[in-house]
TrEMBL record:
Residues 1-27 are annotated as: Disordered. Its cofactor is pyridoxal 5'-phosphate. CDD domains: AAT_like. InterPro entries: Aminotransferase_I/II_large, AspAT/PAT-like, PyrdxlP-dep_Trfase, PyrdxlP-dep_Trfase_major, PyrdxlP-dep_Trfase_small. This is Pyridoxal phosphate-dependent aminotransferase. Gene3D superfamilies: Aspartate Aminotransferase, domain 1, Type I PLP-dependent aspartate aminotransferase-like (Major domain).
């Protein structure tokens, strides 16, 4: 897992800031589900894309998926797109106005707002979790923006969060949503990671759409839990109101203008995954168990080094604050999150995007650490990790964790 350590006298790398060099999708570290590969392969001869917003089968599968999670509606309330980024772009374009989001937030959110020329405001998160703004900070930000002549209309949140890997407590989600709705904001809830919760029996995840059904649009990139990220597809569920129907129509216009259409083979595989047959649900369950174990081990290594991190509750990553190691990092020439990203990416041999990618301050020494890469670098190792009773005892996993811990211990 180690890469060669870059000399600090090397030329400045060009991939430290531009959006095009943003963090890649988080590696699950597990092979694609053979059943989904079979569905995709069987449809490979279908050369036409789905219609804008997705075909009937895909939208109906998404509707049923959400209904099983307590979110009712019709397939006419669903839109599909080739990935979360074009879908979020279309949603923001359809709503207009200024955008608010928690700090930190997913790496794609701020660039989407910039592309649209929309003012975007980052709101501090509560101490308990990431993914949602502190309710009081949200109200203060809304009032300040309006006092300065702004027009806040949209709040983006993620109850199971990237980059912090936390799950927002239901009571805080309710406070935030009620505050947002009272201020006239529409909420977009990114629930990409909801099916990756590590310990679902101990963690309550409540969708904002359950609390404020007329004021929340739910977004989910299926690459979070159901399909490989190389098969781009995401779905959105709109409220069943006349106003939302008009916004959905505008979203379809934007997706059409962008040519953002889902490939039919991908749509068929996605629809199959959304129907959740037994092999799919078992893979999702098993992946969450494995990711919980490896993420907990990585979290222990982070804390042992003297750095800080909230306990990971979902996803295949954690968000570490290396501020307590600032003196040692400064001696290595690392003084901000861009330099930290560069240093740890080289040291770990895997992407370690700095906090600036997620809206955090450049001077804060924060970094997102993927944990899926610890499960193996070859299909054979990944398959072994998937089927092992105790994956942390596998030689390749144990070695990867040892090298991960050693890279952090050097900074302590």
């Amino acid at each position: 897992m180690h890469g060669s350590r870059r000399k600090r006298t090397d030329p400045v790398r060009q991939d430290r800031g531009p959006v095009r060099y943003g963090p890649p999708a988080l590696d699950p570290g597990l092979p694609a589900l053979p059943e989904l590969v079979g569905v995709l392969a069987a449809s490979a001869g279908r050369t036409r894309p789905e219609p804008p917003g997705g075909g009937t089968a895909l939208r109906e599968a998404a509707r049923a998926y959400w209904q099983r999670r307590g979110l009712h509606g019709g397939s006419e309330d669903v839109v599909a797109a080739p990935g979360a980024s074009p879908l979020l772009f279309a949603l923001m374009a359809a709503h207009g106005g200024d955008v608010l989001m928690p700090r930190p937030c997913p790496a794609a959110w701020m660039p989407q707002a910039r592309l649209l020329g929309r003012p975007a405001y980052l709101v501090p998160t509560p101490a308990e979790c990431g993914g949602i703004p502190d309710p009081y900070a949200l109200l203060e930000t809304v009032r300040r923006v309006r006092a300065e002549g702004g027009s806040p209309r949209l709040l983006l949140i993620s109850v199971a969060d990237d980059p912090t890997a936390t799950v927002a407590p239901p009571e805080l989600v309710r406070e935030v949503c009620e505050a947002a709705v009272a201020e006239g904001l529409h909420v977009v809830s990114d629930e990409t990671w909801r099916d990756t919760v590590h310990r679902p029996q101990d963690t309550v995840l409540l969708s904002p759409a359950e609390m404020c059904p007329d004021d929340v649009t739910v977004l989910a990139d299926l690459g979070g839990a159901l399909t490989p990220s190389a098969w781009p597809v995401a779905v959105a569920r709109f409220p069943g109101t006349g106003r939302s129907a008009a916004r959905r129509a505008r979203v379809l216009d934007v997706l059409t203008a962008l040519g953002a259409l889902v490939a039919e083979p991908v749509a068929r595989a996605a629809a199959h995954a959304l129907r959740e047959p037994a092999p799919v649900t078992e893979r999702v369950r098993r992946a969450a168990v494995i990711q919980a174990q490896v993420a907990s081990a990585a979290h222990r290594a982070v804390l042992t080094s003297g750095a800080l991190a909230r306990p990971p509750q979902a996803g295949r990553h954690l968000y570490a604050d290396l501020g307590p190691l600032r003196s040692r990092l400064a001696a290595l020439g690392v003084t901000d999150s861009m330099e930290l990203e560069e240093y740890l990416t080289d040291r770990l041999g895997a992407p370690a995007p700095g906090g600036h990618r997620f809206g955090d301050e450049l001077g804060a020494l924060r970094v997102r650490l993927g944990t899926g890469v610890l499960l193996g670098s070859t299909p054979e190792e990944q398959t072994e990790s998937l089927t092992a009773v105790e994956p942390l005892r596998l030689p390749h996993v144990a070695q990867a964790l040892s090298m991960f811990a050693a890279a952090l211990e050097e900074l302590g």
